[in-house]
Amino acid sequence: MTEWDIKKLQILRTLRDRGTVTATAETLLMTPSAVSQQLTNLSKQLGVKLLEAHGRRVRLTDAAQLVLRHAEAVFAQLERADAELTGYLRGEAGEVRVGAFSTAVPALVVPAVLRLRAAHPGLEVRVREAEAAEAYELLSAGQVDLALSLAAHAPPARDARFSRVPLLADPLDVALPAGHALAGAPGLRLADLSGERWIFGGSGPWSEITRAACEAAGFVPEQAHSAAGWTAILAMVEAGMGIALVPRMAAAERASGVVTRVLEADQPRRHVIAAVRRGAESAPAVSRLLAALREAATRR
């Protein structure tokens, strides 16, 4: 029978995810030579070629991809076994680590932590602010147990590494200066704002969300200023420098000189999900945190 080495399979999976031997070594706290040696040994054990040269880098062979498709089922089962063992050993105590994007921390994570602190004081939650790309790297590497992100920026649902849990459809409101001519207009629609100057990030998720919402309303927004943080965006809106779409989850950061209007006819939304490593959703600490996050989402 072929010998399957879990540790070496994890190294192969990390190489697939990170793309280079150097990045794999950094993620796993190994040396590049140790990574290469382990993968060479795995290739010998399995009797197939796993890597091939691609310029100055290496890429996985079709055989390696086949091996990893089966290995994902093994990893998921090991996660389930670890979850059951953790529940047996820790009971109501333990630790769960969360990677979450900035507006999700005060809107969802903090209320969930407060709920858990009251119900399960022995359970500790550690929070790390991280946007989607970093959060899923941390989740895959085992450095966080749960990642919160926008659904549009999560790995695809078919990704065998993760289980996705829908949490919230977060409405997008439009932020206008308090003295804007349309600040009190009834039945305001995005199309009414097609001639306005807009404020949003130059790239990344918020740029894509703003452009997509406006294009769905029939126009391409004119970008007047570029900013990623809500404090900066809302300060510019308050100063009359432009308008912006603002997620309702960011309500706590709104400035006094800004009017936010609900776009009832358009109903733009961004969808927030939680993700865990497949099989880990039954771990007691993770399961309790997911329940607390769902509760926080329903209260918004």
TrEMBL record:
PROSITE patterns in the record, alphabetically? HTH_LYSR
- Could you tell me what this protein is called? LysR family transcriptional regulator
Top-rank taxon, per record: Bacteria
- Family membership: Belongs to the LysR transcriptional regulatory family.
Which Pfam families is this protein grouped with? HTH_1 (PF00126), LysR_substrate (PF03466)
KW Heme (keyword) present: no
Output the InterPro entries linked to this UniProt entry: LysR_HTH_N (IPR000847), LysR_subst-bd (IPR005119), WH-like_DNA-bd_sf (IPR036388), WH_DNA-bd_sf (IPR036390)
Domain HTH lysR-type positions:
4-61
For this UniProt record, give its keywords in alphabetical order, as a comma-separated list: DNA-binding, Transcription, Transcription regulation
